[in-house]
Amino acid sequence: MTAGSTATRQLLDELPRSPAVWCSGLRKRYRRHTAVDDVSFTVGRGEVLGLLGPNGAGKTTVIKMLLGLVRPDAGDVLLLGRPARDPRARARVGYLPELFRYQPWLTAAEVMALHVRLAGVTVPDEERRECLATVGLADRAGDRVGGFSKGMQQRLGLAVALVARPELIVLDEPTSALDPIGRADVRDLLLSLKERQVAVLLNSHLIGEVERVCDRVVILDKGKVAASGTLAELLGQRELRLRLDGVGPEAEARLAAEGQLTRAGDDFTVALRDTAAVPDLVADLVGLGVRVHAVEPGRISLEERLLDILRAGSDHR
Amino acid sequence: MNARTVLTIAALTLREAARRKVLRSLAVMTVALLSLSAWGFYRLDAEFGGLTSGEARIASSVVLNLVMFGLSMIAALGTAFLAGPTMAGEMESGTALAILARPIRREAVLLGKWLGLVTFGSVFVALAGLTQLVIVWVTMGYWPPSPVVGLALLAGQTAVLLTVGLLLSTAISPMASGIVAVGLFGATWIAGVVGGLGDALGNESVARVGTVSRMILPTDGLWRGAMSSFQEPNLLSQFTEVRGQPFLSDDELTIPYLAWTAVWVALILGLAALSFRRRDL
């Protein structure tokens, strides 16, 4: 019996670990408005996934469906390998809601103790205090939450999300109430989580933040997945900015042959497929009588890419 | 369902009750009512020293029930206004989000809240009620026939009302749920008084108003049972002219009625669990 179960355990251990989040075909309607429509994605173990999109794209609703706070009309969710219908799926999940509020009549330390108890784990006092220290609340542990500022409550929320030794952390707008220093702290925290192989699902408006820490990005628009992929996949495209004059139709055709061309007066931008083509392009342009003032290769930022995707989406409709 | 979660939430609810302003207002109201009644009983004894023993017994029973009604009102108001904010308020403010994302069942949270509130209400009724009985005993020398049963029924009445409050708070806003619960409590009490009058006048259809309302919301039935345990026994058979009086009761509680009350509470709690479970946050 014992030998058998050990063998089973060994077999299970050798299996590839199930992803931190797996969801498929999530759908949610509020009366006549479709908030989420057929959303599927995964977050691998130890991976940081950014969830991006405009206001009302359905990001928070997706997060709430993952955590069992909103009932999906359709679709399945697995958290750390367990179906999300089972509350135990959330045993190793930390969550900072967008609307963060903690019992104002409790002290910060009591809020932490409450969440540890509800998570069903034992975390020594020392570790809980360290958690509060990580978010800069070490000296406020004994103060009532009612007296905390918005930013401090959000810091407490981060500590609560971290305290029960999670393997997955879901952060919904974790820096909305924080000052620039607080934002930098959160970025460092995310990087340290990544180092410790804790999976993170991050919903943030701050694209720079996402770009710096996320391995992969899912872009939601009007309840649907508009694009998804690793940062390299989404931003792999390079662009070439040129300042030219004397550009005739032939030269313009030559530029367009390299990739999608946009023109603003004398400034031309070409979305390059291959950076190796730059010297030839410049030689050809000179041959066509174009005067070249500046050639500047650049990388498309996540922000530009996001805006492109969202604008393309609204043009389609 | 996890017993640990239920107990954790119950303890949290008790701590909330103890730390929020509700407790202080409750304490102030109770102390005011108790001191007023102490003064009243003292004057009653001093002014009407010449009352016959029967008259004195009626007077003390009526006034005791009147004050107990005040206490039960305070308990009802207090718990209804605790029950509302504790569920609906937490859902509205976002406090519930972080809690319910933990590996716990919503039913366990609801049951924990209920347990905490029932404990709070019962302790309040026991303490305030006992103090009141002692006041009457000291001033008038009157001790009711079955004080424990009476206080238990009052606590039961509080439990019934806060269960309604919990059910309402899973569906409507915190303030509205408190107001509706207290409104229902008042309405059944009035229906009970009307029914009592119908009884006294021998009008069956009017009497039925009280009976039906006592089935729909058992607060008034429990209250009448509590009154009859506080008042002098056989009072109403000796003095038939006081029948139909709202602060005296000739209704002894029956076991089936108590069983119905228990089933009723379980049903409402089940409904609340269903409504809470389906609620999107």
Top keywords for this entry?
heterodimer, A: 317 residues, alpha/beta, Rossmann fold, Alpha-Beta Plaits, 2 domains, 6-stranded mixed β-sheet, 4-stranded antiparallel β-sheet, 11 helices, 14 strands, elongated, B: 281 residues, mainly alpha, 83% helix, globular
List the secondary-structure elements of chain B in sequence, H or E: HHHHHHHHHHH
Number of spatially distinct domains of chain A: 2
What is the radius of gyration of chain A computed over CA atoms, rounded to a whole number of angstroms? 24 Å
Are there runs of chain A of 5+ residues with pLDDT below 50, and where? none
DSSP strand (E) fraction of chain B?
under 5%
- CATH class categorisation of the largest domain in chain A: Alpha Beta
Secondary structure category of chain B: mainly alpha
Structural class label of chain A:
alpha/beta
Any idea how many domains of chain B? 1
Helix content of chain B: over 70%
Number of strands of chain A: 14
Overall pLDDT confidence of chain A: 88
> Helix and strand succession of chain A?
HEEEHEEEHHHEHEHEEHEHEEHEH
Outline type of chain B: globular
Structure annotation, total helices of chain B: 11
Note the main sheet of chain A. 6 strands, mixed
CATH topology of the largest domain in chain A: Rossmann fold
What is the CATH architecture term of the largest domain in chain A?
Answer: 3-Layer(aba) Sandwich
Quick description:
The complex is a heterodimer of chains A (317) and B (281). Helices cover 38% and strands 28% of the residues of chain A. Chain A has 317 residues and is an alpha/beta fold.
Describe this structure in words.
The complex is a heterodimer of chains A (317) and B (281). Chain A has 317 residues and is an alpha/beta fold. Chain A is built from 11 helices and 14 strands. In chain A, the strands form 3 sheets. A 6-stranded mixed β-sheet of chain A has the order 6-7-8-3-9-10, sandwiched between helices. The radius of gyration of chain A is 24 Å and the shape is elongated. The two termini of chain B are 21 Å apart. Chain B is built from 11 helices and no strands. Chain B has one domain. Chain B has 281 residues and is mainly alpha-helical. Chain A binds chain B through residues 64, 67-71, 87-91, 93, 95-97, 99-103, 105-106, 114-115, 117-120, 157, 160, 170, and chain B through 2, 4-5, 8, 12, 15-16, 19-20, 93-95, 97-105, 278, 280-281.
